[in-house]
Amino acid sequence: MQADDARYLKRKYKGGSLDVHPTEKALVVQYEVEATILRETGDPMLGERKECQKIIRLKSLNSNTDIASLARKVVEECRLISPSRLPEVEQLLFYLQNRKKSAEKKEKKQIKPRDLTPFEGIELDEEANINSIDDYVELLYEDIPEKIRGATLILHLARNPDNLEELLQNETALGALARVLREDWKQSVDLATTIIYVFFCFSSFSQFHGLITHYKIGALCMSIIEHELKRYDLWQDELQKKKKADILSNLKKEYEKALKKYHGLLTKQEQLLRVALYLLLNLSEDTRTELKMRNKNIVHLLVKTLDRDSEELLVLVVSFLKKLSIFLENKNDMAEIDTVEKLAKLVPCEHEDLLNVTLRLLLNLSFDTGLRSKMVQADLLPKLTSLLDEAQRQIAMCILYHISMDDRFKSMFAYTDCIPQVMKMLFDCVEERIDAELISFCINLAANKRNAQIMCEGENRYKCATKKNIEDQNREYTREIFIDYVGDLAAQIGLKEEEEFVIECLGTLSNLTIPDLDWELVLKEYNLVPYLKDHLKPGSAEDDLILEVVIMIGTVSMDDSCAVMLAKSGIIPALIELLNAQQEDDEFVCQIVYVFYQMVFHQATRDVIIKETQAPAYLIDLMHDKNAEIRKVCDNTLDIIAEYDVEWGKKIQSEKFRWHNSQWLEMVENRQMDEAEPFMYGDDGEPFLQNSDILERPDLFYSADGIIPADGAISPEFFTDFQNGDLLGPQGFPSSSLTDGYGQMGVTPARPATAYGFRPDEQFYYGYTASR
């Protein structure tokens, strides 16, 4: 038989089974196609049979749909279903109408465009074949309907990854698609959506990104998105005008007609936006491409799209923004516009994926102080609090933790249900290790007086003090709540508890600077002195624990009997050894010097420090430390030592003179003097003041201003006056009028409650803030 003998092609369709789609609102029709090639005489020459499938999607099916009418419409429009099967169609439609929505919800979570139809209203009567690609390309040169058909056939091929390599080799087809998109995208949304969808299939694989860049599809998509957003604004304006006009004329027909048309246009536009944005999201894997998008204002376009109602589109937009937000420039772009305000409208929402990705974007943005402020202004605090009992609680808590770092927002948590919920989460935690985010959040909240009081109210009072040991650095009222639980806290220190837990116990006790607390009894009852001494050895534990031990010793050393007990145990040499080992760590140095400061107030420990150790020598070396707080505590300690030991007093005076005189000599040497200044030299040409003269002039080291005798002697009663608050400036130190010309302390200051001269409730710790 010759090929020329073939004259006719005859197709015969035979209907098969009818069933419902497993996940979509759709009917699946199985049918058979029999193709026969006939000779000119009409006799069959060659035949082939193929099983096919058609999906009838029922977008309008809902609980109010008239099943009988819809079934008749399906049978009339689908030639593959015989009218005799109308009852069967009705039964299947009824099943779809009442089927549980679990499958729908599962499909709803899928955000990839490849899992959805490119647009509504297009159904192919034939199956696309890669061997017919040239015929499909020919359709791209016809009118718009034929172009849509040709692009749809190519799309069906592109959705199969096995065909992409072959399509890649067909430059004619890809060039024609790019040309049609560039020239005709404004004429048909369906055409634009279908062609972009083809290129999206390529964008799912990084090796094909060069192809999309070659045809400049990304830049074209940016232009299309910008144009469509402008059209959306125009539609909104026109719809509002019609609504006002109908209200004035008491007619609703025009408005309802326009609204129906608007919803149809909106559905197609959102499909176009979705596939175009997803293509750009894939291309943004390359940071250079992402930078080009930023230069074309991608952030503003995405934020503008947040006004839409389509949850699938919003998931994509927010995901894109989350990816962009990791770069500072993009985050700054988001800060300039109302990004947070629009995201706040999406919290909470029923769509789990949308809620999750929105919270993750907010978490990225919450690292910025200004954006945290906007979150509070957008009323996100109570919204995030409501999510602490749900699946998203971990992300919500991280955002709340960031907000709680700002002192100005801490008090706002007291007016929400956040604190009771967080405390319940804390106490319900049965794991050995508590989440770092949870305990850190609690510590931040506890840094506010009102929050701490709420934490300690009712049944929380005991739990707060014993089970979880949240450090509370507030005023006396809150501290006194812990007096009843000092024993419980101290009991935990000697036990083999986790180090982090012991650190919290020590930190809490260290902050209890309460006059009525008998520290001697606590140390003896729980045998804490050996523990404290053993943990002063360098390397005996983590630095955080050793530091808390030092702070604890400083607190209990305020008590005379405790200071004596510690001195007899040999803790002072251990502190000096630790000082040598940690001399580069300002925090350690300051806290150890503070312990010495507390101990020199007591005669027993003062004698040990002055006569049996070289602590004063170390303090003299630290007089000129670069850290201002260390210098301050060191100077105050040395002033007391100088008053009670003449020999050390002379050494301290000599060192002060040497330091200040060296600065003065350096100034003199660097100064070009044309003639000698009379006030610097006497009549005999000798310097006006000699070293020996200055050392005999204590008034040059203690600017008393009439308060201290000329001989520089200071009695212990003088310090008592300072402890009672007399002659003190802010933070427990003397006012500036009590300093000498070198900025040194002219008198010994009041005894501060911490190493830095600040009370814990004043929240001015150096390097140890309330928010960790």
Description of the structure:
The protein is mainly α and 772 residues long. It is built from 40 helices and three strands. It has a three-stranded antiparallel sheet. The longest helix is centred in the N-terminal third of the chain and has 33 residues.
Give a summary of the structure in a few sentences:
GO terms for molecular function: kinesin binding. Keywords: Coiled coil. The protein is mainly alpha-helical.
Q: Number of helical runs?
A: 40
Strand content: 5-15%
Distance between the termini: 89 Å
Helix content: 55-70%
Sequence stretches where pLDDT stays below 50 over 5 or more residues:
1-6, 102-122, 461-477, 674-683, 685-695, 697-751, 756-772
Average pLDDT score: 78
Tell me the radius of gyration: 41 Å
Which structural class is indicated by helix and strand composition?
Answer: mainly alpha
Q: What shape does the CA trace take?
A: elongated
Largest sheet: 3 strands, antiparallel
Strand element count: 3
Biggest sheet strand order reads 1-2-3
